[in-house]
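Weekly modeling sync, notes
Attendees: S.R. (lead), two postdocs, one rotation student

Agenda item 3: backlog of single-chain predictions. S.R. asked that every request posted to the team notebook include the full sequence so nobody has to chase files. The rotation student volunteered to paste the first one in as an example of the format we agreed on. Action items at the bottom.

Example entry:
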Amino acid sequence: MQFRLRILGDLDDEAERLATHPRVDRVRGSLSNEDIAMEMAQARALIFPSEYEGFGLPPFEALCLGTPAIYARTAATAEVLCGTPGGYDSTDEQSFRKAFDEALRLSDEDLQRLQSRLRDRYSWVKVGQRTLEVYRSLAGRT
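Predicted structure, as returned to the notebook:
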């Protein structure tokens, strides 16, 4: 299967040089949230190697759009995605290969289950309810 890599956002000079490969589509400049969501929804997979993203939002968002994510298993991202296929150890190339294969083997049904699980776990309604419970508990009202 032939893939093309589509890179969004800013890169350092060395990464820009590497991104001149003929099978790389380079999108420079800022995109709207809607444009980014469209890119993710239409992608075969999101590759997210960042070790610094605090909450793991891009892989979470991709999965909620029905797109598999290949992501570095950093503390916060691994916790948010709770064993979701596609996580890898950023210091191990073999781990990346395994995560890549694992994510691309997900069926539409698998992706729908993951999407439902993540949306349910992190719904704004539940976040609001939990926040109110904590405030009420701290205020002495249960």
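Discussion: group reviewed the output briefly. The chain has a mean pLDDT of 90.
Action items: rotation student to repeat for the remaining queue; S.R. to check formatting next week.
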